[in-house]
Every structure is written in C-alpha cells, then in structure tokens.
Design a protein that fits this description.
Length: 223
C-alpha cells in the first residue's frame, strides 16, 4: 500500500471519536419511523438549519444506452408521497438518459449532520402545471438562461452564451418569460429509500424502506 496521501484526511482514531466536534445533533428518529417521506422531511429540516448552503443538493445517477453511468449534483425542488422532483432541460444529456432507462438513483449527504439519504426507482416527467408553477418562481435572469442554454451541447466560448442570453432578453423584453417547451420537471418515484446515520468506528445506522403494494416495509442493514 502506498504512503498516505496528505490531501486525504486520515482515518479517525479512538481519541477523535471521543472528542467529537462539540455540536449537538438532532435525534435521528430511526427507531420510530414508519414513513420515509415524514422521516426525510425531518432530516431535511435539520439539514436546512445546519448546512452551510444547498441543503437540497443531491447527486443524481443515471446510465446511458451503453450502460455507462453518469452522476451530477442537482437541486431538489419538491418532494411528497409521489417522490423527489427536480427541474432541467429536457434536451440535456441527463434527460436523454432518464428517458432511455426510465430509472435513476439519488443521494443526499449532509456533512454537518453526518447523515446520508439514498433513493432509487423509476422516473417520470412532472406535469406541465407543476413545471409552469416552478418556472414562474425563478428569477427572470434564470428564466432567460433556461431559454438561452442548449444544455449539454458543444459551446464555442463564453461569448456565444452571452450573445444567446442577450438575444432571449431582447425577445421577451417588457413581457413575462414563459417556460420553454424543452424545460421542465422530473420526478424520481422511489422503490427504496435508505437513511444512514453516522456512528463511531463504522457502527453506523442504516434503515431502508421498500415500496410494496400495501405501503412501505422497513428493515435494518449492517453498516
């Protein structure tokens, strides 16, 4: 094995676990949780209070037609019993992969709480009404950017994008910016949702919910 890379933090020792970081963390609630949506709401609320920024950031994993995986960070914009919703360009690489496979996985990591949530399942497009409603809440500049960006396509340089933004701004000057027909929401409908709570010496807690015809089943996993 090579010498330890100085850029990588060393594995914690017993004294490190004993010292902790001095911060109180909210109870995980894993023993009593019966609904992953309710538990996720509790964990997200705690993350919003403790994370430095973007508590709703999540890694979204997809695969292309050759089975080659991709992952990127996107922002969760809604969640409920139907699943986790985010928005993007329907002509983007990620949308092509979502359309092709019909499945995806996502992961949240809240470092301040030492918690993770993972989910995977099928995907579906959000309704036009949902996409219209969210698009209307975006800053005008972001609305214009959605029209100007040919997401995932080659770009000759920044000047090309700046010019596209200027063209769109002129096009909609003095009027509301409508949602582009190629832009909208995706929803991941989870088949499983796993909650991970950090423990000393790798004695982590893992609770997984699995969808069944009668609701959610739950079970513990070895860390």
């Amino acid at each position: 094995m090579s010498a330890h890379n100085p850029l990588i933090p060393p594995t914690p020792a017993a004294v490190d676990y004993a010292a902790g970081d001095g911060r109180e963390r909210p109870a995980a609630g894993l023993d009593t949780a019966v609904d992953p949506v309710v538990l996720f709401a509790d964990w997200l609320a705690a993350a919003r209070a403790s994370e430095l920024n973007d508590c709703n950031a999540m890694s979204l994993a997809t695969v292309d037609g050759d089975g080659m995986p991709d992952v990127r960070v996107v922002l969760l914009k809604d969640f409920d019993a139907r699943g986790f919703t985010f928005f993007t360009n329907y002509d983007s690489a990620k949308s092509a992969q979502l359309t092709g496979s019909g499945k995806a996985a996502l992961g949240f990591h809240w470092k301040s709480l030492r918690r993770q949530v993972r989910a995977r399942g099928r995907v579906e497009r959000a309704s036009d009404a949902e996409s219209d409603a969210y698009f209307a809440t975006r800053a005008r500049e972001s609305q214009i950017g959605a029209w100007a960006s040919r997401q995932s396509r080659p770009l000759s340089g920044t000047d090309e994008l700046v010019a596209a933004v200027a063209d769109v701004a002129a096009r909609f000057e003095g009027q509301p910016v409508p949602r582009p027909p190629f832009w909208g929401g995706w929803r991941l409908v989870p088949q499983t949702v796993e909650f991970w709570n950090d423990g000393a010496f790798r004695l982590h807690e893992r609770l997984v919910f699995s969808a069944t015809p009668d609701g959610w089943s739950r079970g513990r996993l070895y860390p």
